[in-house]
Amino acid sequence: MSFYSFTSSIAVATIFITLLFSNSQAQLNSSFYATTCPNVTTIVRNALQQAMQSDIRIGASLIRLHFHDCFVDGCDGSVLLDRGGNITQSEKDAGPNTNSARGFGVVDNIKTAVENSCPGVVSCADILALAAESSVSLAGGPSWNVLLGRRDGLRANQGGANSSIPAPIDSLSNLTSKFSAVGLDTTDLVALSGAHTFGRAQCRVFSSRLYNFNGTGNPDPTVNGTYLTTLRQICPQNGNGSALANLDPTTADTFDNNYYTNLQNNQGLLQSDQELFSTNGPAAIVAIVNNFASNQTAFFQQFVQSMINMGNISPLTGSNGEIRADCKKVNGS
After folding, report:
1. What is the DSSP annotation of 164-199?
2. 12, 177, 204, 269: least CB-packed within 10 angstroms?
3. Is the pLDDT of residue 180 over 60?
4. DSSP E strands: which ranges in the chain?
């Protein structure tokens, strides 16, 4: 990556990672289930549409599950595993996921619908990837042909979830490091952060920005004053930390490019959002934000490519892993 100064050893490691990602991309393809489960995309989409009738948030929640899955040992469905049997520590109980990640029941419902049509064929990891695409397109965003052929992992990595998943209080430096660690660059970072154009966040995740930013006893100076007043009404000091605020205060349930105009107006809800448009940040990242804010088509095109890039992180293919019968547990456990 251009923002790293590589030593020779890191350069060698990077070449290896690049080859790994290139190889994984070659192994995945959009027609993987063309003969074994030709209607899988429709099945997933229909099940998600049904879930959205009673839970408008579910699309954003499912794309987040895919994101949290891929950042921990690759896109292998490990985020879905419950504790039990050989799974002594679940990623569901990791800091970024506990009392936060949601939509597991909907994933189970989708899996049941898929199994009823094509038993033992489609992995839970691929269901997450397909659900993420449907979530975006059903909310008004772009659609794309999802690359498929992932298999499900046999273990969970709670420690990895705690250390690898980008956090809402991460600095830009930490964010770029975590993305780089899985082969994604700063353009991917800015584009994938745009998924915060829909969905909600709990007050506990960002309330320090409203009252006691970095221990100063004052709010984050980068928060727009009017927006600060609104957020304090939703999240009073020492109030309910589970109360919800829209990630996008303008079009809360629509997938569009307003996330980036929000950043320009200092209305990024999470610290990790506003970090992308920091006055102290790299000009190249600010330029990407400005481009996406003014050109929704450019954002959509890059978002699709970055979702494909993320979906290519270290998948299990061929005879590696398994096709879980139940997304919550490893077969035979």
Report:
1. HS--TT--HHHHHHHHHHTT--HHHHHHHHGGGGS-
2. 12
3. yes
4. 200-202, 244-246
